[in-house]
Design a protein that fits this description.
The chain is of the alpha+beta class. It is 14% helix and 34% strand. It is built from two helices and eight strands. The strands form two sheets. It has a four-stranded antiparallel β-sheet. Strands 2-3-4-5 form a four-stranded antiparallel β-sheet, with no helix packed on it. β2 and β3 form a beta hairpin.
Length: 185
């Protein structure tokens, strides 16, 4: 006898598995952690200031958002801009087409090699002061210095895309997310 589950049960099971995949944002020995979560609609800016004063922002792009981290005295300066890779799929860029197949007719089936639900980024208050992007001459030591200070992630909990249209690129209509910032105590 074959067990058949209704579409409603399958949807509930899929949602519970997705919720279980959301990572936990916790302080570790020697590191603080702060959680940010929210929802944002296409074209809108999402901005949250954590209790310790970090500004987490999603700035709109043509097809989604860019992850940015700043501080109140440097609000217009993105302290996460040294997150590699600088040429190719960068985790800080969230765009709808990354979640569709190459022809934009269905879900990403692997034909688009781009980051998916989990995005990692690094940040430091030294970016733009003592640590700078220098194109291909940016050293691994510079990246390590940023990473040793601030690390973060954003997890897309859910999203809505523009309708599939063959030959075009999908955009996000909205996203729901959870993000975590960690830095030294």
């Amino acid at each position: 006898m074959k067990l058949r589950l209704s579409p409603c049960i399958l949807l509930l099971l899929a949602a519970s598995q997705l919720q279980a995949a959301v990572p936990v944002c916790e302080s570790e020995p020697g590191r603080n952690a702060e959680l940010v979560d929210g929802e944002v609609l296409r074209g809108a800016v999402f901005k949250a200031v954590t209790p310790d004063g970090w500004i987490f922002r999603l700035s709109p792009t043509e097809r989604g958002w860019s992850i940015e981290v700043s501080q109140p005295e440097r609000e217009n300066e993105d302290l996460s801009r040294l997150t590699p890779p600088w040429h190719g799929p960068n985790h800080r860029l969230l765009e709808g087409w990354q979640f569709r197949n190459r022809s934009n007719t269905g879900p990403n089936d692997g034909s688009v090699n781009e980051p998916q639900h989990m995005r990692h980024f690094i940040f430091s208050p030294d970016v733009g002061r003592t640590l700078h992007y220098d194109g291909s001459a940016t050293t691994p030591e510079t990246v390590e210095a940023v990473q040793s200070f601030g690390r973060g992630w954003l997890y897309l909990v859910s999203y809505a895309l523009t309708p599939p249209a063959e030959g075009e690129r999908a955009s996000f209509d909205s996203i729901s997310f959870t993000a975590c910032l960690t830095w030294p105590k």
